Amino acid sequence: MKNIMITNKLSRIGKIKLLMRHSVAKNAIALYIIQAVKILAPFLILPYLSRVFTKEEFGVYMVVLSLSAIGLIVTDFGFNLSATYEIAKKRENKKYINELIGSVIVIKLCLLFVCSLALYTYSFYFPEVIPHNIVIFICLNIFSQSFIFSWFFQGIEKMKEITLFVVASRVIYLILTVLLIDVDSSVNDLIVLLAISNLIGSVLSISLVYKYGYKVCISSLRNTLLHFKNSSQFFISRAAVGVYTSSSVFIVGASAGVAQAAAYGACEKVYQGSLSLTQPISQALFPFIARTKSLRSLSLVLLVIGFPVAIFCLLIGLYADQVMGIVFGEAYFNSGQVLQVFLIITSINFISIIMGYPAFSALDKVHIANYTVIFGAFLHLGLLTYIYFLKEITAFNVACAVLITETIVMLLRVSIFFFYKREINNEPN
C-alpha cells in the first residue's frame, strides 16, 4: 500500500512537471510576469505619488496616463491580436514573419504621427484639459511603448527572455521615480522617467527579435496595406474597448474635474492590478487554442482561476474604503464605493476575456469577439451621453456605466459562443 501511495505521488509530481513544461503554461507564466510588472510597477509607486502630489496634480497624472493608453491603442492598431494570430499560424515561414514585422513598424510610425498631430490639435483648442507643454511628453511615452513587440513573442510562444527585459525596464522606472521625484517635481518629470524606462524595453525587445533568427524586412506597399486592412477589425474592437476603459479617466477629468479623475484613476489602477492576474491566461491561451482548437482548456481555466478571482474581489470589496485610504492616503478614503464597482467588473471581465478571442478562435470565428466589443462601445457611449445630459458625470456613475457595459458584453459572448458551438455539433459529418 505504501509503495502504491509513493508511486501515485510520484505520478502526480510527474504530471505537474509535464504541465509546467507545456507551451501554454510557460507562456502564461511569462505573460503573468510581464502583465503584473507593467501594471503593478506604476501601481506600486502610486501610493508614493498620491502623497507627493496634490489630488489635482495626481488627477492630471491620471489623465496623462489615460491619454497615453488611448494613443497606444491607436499605434498598436490591433496588432497584439492580429499579428499574434498570423504568426501563430505561420511560425515556420520566417520570410512572411520578417516582412510582417517590417509592415507593423511602418504602420506604427505613421499612426504615431497621426496620433501626435491629433493631440497637438486638441491641446490648441482645449489647453485647460491638455496644456501645450505636456503633449510632447505624452507623445514620447506613446512612442516608447509602441515598439515593445510582445505580440511577436506571443506568436512564436517564446516569452522568457523578453520577460526579463520588461521587468528590468519597470524596475528602472521604480528606482528613478523614488530617487528623483519629490514635492518640487512636476508631472512632466514623471512622464519622462516612464518614457525612458519603456524605451529601454523597446530597444531590448527589437534586439531579441534578431537573436531568435528573425529580422525587420521592409515589405511591399501592397502587403503593408493588406496587413493594415487585416488588423483594422481588431483595431476597431480594441478602440471600442478603449471607449469604456482607457478613455474613462479622461472623460471624468474633462467633465467633472481632475479631483474626480484622481479618485476614478486610483480605483481603476487597483482594478488594472487585479487584471494583471487574469489577462495573461487569455493571452497565452489565444495562440494555443487558435492552433489546437482545444475547448477543454477553456473550461479548466474558467473553473480553476474564476473561483479564486471571485473570492479575492469579495474580500477586498468588504474593506474597500480602508484599502483606498491605506494605499492612496486619507484624501481617497471615501472612494471605496467606486472600488467596489471595479471589483465586480473584475470577475465579470475574467469570464468575458476567456470567452472572447480564445473561445472564438476555437470555432474559427474570432471576428465575433470583435463585434461584441464594438456593440459594447456604442452601448457605453449611449450610457455616457445619458448621464452627461443628466449632468451626473462622476467617478461612481462612470464606473457603473462600465459595469453595465462589461456585463452585457460578457453575456453576449457566452450566449453566442454556445449557439455556434451547438450549430457546429449538429452539422452532419
What does this structure look like?
- The chain is mainly alpha-helical and 429 residues long.
- Helices cover 83% and strands 0% of the residues.
- Helix 3 packs across helix 12 (258-275).
- Residues 8-20 have low confidence and may be disordered.
The oligomerization state is single chain
Distance between the termini: 48 Å
Task: Indicate the structural class.
Answer: mainly alpha
Looking at the structure, what is the overall shape? Answer: globular
Strand content: under 5%
What is the H/E order? HHHHHHHHHHHHHHHHHHH
Number of strands: 0
Q: Indicate the mean pLDDT.
A: 76
Give the % helix: over 70%
Taking all Cα atoms into account, the compactness measure Rg is 22 Å
Give the gist of this structure:
The protein has 429 residues and is an all-alpha fold. It has 19 helices and no strands.
Topology of helices and strands:
Layout: H1 2-20, H2 23-52, H3 55-76, H4 79-89, H5 94-125, H6 132-146, H7 150-155, H8 160-180, H9 187-211, H10 221-243, H11 248-256, H12 258-275, H13 279-292, H14 296-318, H15 320-328, H16 336-354, H17 357-362, H18 366-389, H19 395-426
Helix pairs in contact: 2-8, 2-12, 2-13, 3-5, 3-6, 3-10, 3-11, 3-12, 4-10, 4-13, 5-6, 5-10, 6-9, 8-9, 10-18, 11-12, 12-16, 14-16, 15-16, 16-19, 18-19
Keywords:
429 residues; 19 helices
